[in-house]
Amino acid sequence: MDRSPDWLTQADRDLAQARDSAAAGRHEWACFAAHQAAELAVKALHLSRGQDAWGHVIRRLLEQLPAGVVVPQALLERARVLDGYYVPTRYPNGHPEGAPGEHYGENQSREAISHAGALLEFCRAAMAGPR
User: Fold this and answer.
1) Torsion over CA: 15, 17, 22, 26 (sign)
2) CB 44 within 8 A of CB 127
3) Which terminus in the chain has less CB density within 10 A, N or C?
4) Where are the domains of the chain?
């Protein structure tokens, strides 16, 4: 059974959560939710191609897609930025001092949401295209 649409639906919800968190000033959570949205979208694309994907490094997940899926370098760079939001947005020991909320602001959440949106659209288009 192909569960890839479920993963993509959750990716959309996670991106909506990132936007809501940014609007509420919780920029660390916006960055983390954007990472999650992109991660789930890439995993949806893997599932749509009949393979499982494990891990949380979006760039690596993109590189592990089947040979028929060409990922532009610009998307790999967007993934690299998002990967930097996986741990330090949630844990105080991810920074020399201060809680995560002190280290993230509007610029970071806006960038993370933009990168995640681009990755979701890439995955959505690839899932809709020929296999």
Assistant:
1) negative
2) yes
3) N
4) 4-128
